[in-house]
Amino acid sequence: MSTKLTTKATLEQRIRGLIAGTQKHPPTGSLTVDGVTYTAAALVQLLQSLADALSAVDAAKASWQNALTQQRTVQTQVLPVIRGYSNLLLAANGNAPATLADYGLTPRKAKTPLSTEAQAQAIAKNEATRKARNTMGKQQKKQVKGTVPTSPAAPQAPTATTTPTPTTAPKPST
User: Which string of DSSP letters, residue by residue, matches 103-138?
Assistant: First the structure.
């Protein structure tokens, strides 16, 4: 038995070949395949029905892909309107659950304040993160000044140097 992979393209090609061969060289009499008797015309009709079904699948898939593309296009246009309208309704109706329920919306949850313990923990975590990342604020950055590293000078042999003697310039008389 062959383990050849049958794809839709190879199946369509095989069907076209069988139909063309059957029409070019019609069998004499009837054929019995798997216990069922077929005439040449009935066999061609059966093969053609599968080819038509495969074509219908291709057409349905193309139609489905077009429908998906259209849905995505409309969705990108409508979703911002939905968000804006929902926000408008939530702002206008506040915490009126009955009115918002008519629109299929629920009121926004009120933000629960952190406990003092949770606040202290968040502050400690923030400070630890800033220290680990060496994060500084504007004022701290202003205080940081760079220094030019001095290169270690090799000891030099003493040389004779002349020091200039200061000369006094004559004062202009007036």
Answer: TT--PPPPPPPPPHHHHHHHHHHHHHHHHHHT---H
Counting Cβ atoms within 10 Å, is residue 161 exposed (0-12), middle (13-18) or buried (19+)? exposed
Residues found in the chain: 174
Say if 115 falls within a structural domain. Answer: no
Are 43 and 22 contacting, i.e. CB atoms less than 8 angstroms apart?
Answer: yes
Structural domain tally of the chain? 1
Indicate whether 171 belongs to any domain: no
Enter the pTM of the model. 0.47
Euclidean distance between CA atoms 72 and 74, whole angstroms:
6
Q: Which domain holds residue 97?
A: 8-102
Q: Is 70 exceeded by the pLDDT of residue 143?
A: yes
Confidence at residue 118, expressed as pLDDT on a 0 to 100 scale: 93
Cα angle: 55, vertex 36, 51; to 5 degrees = 5
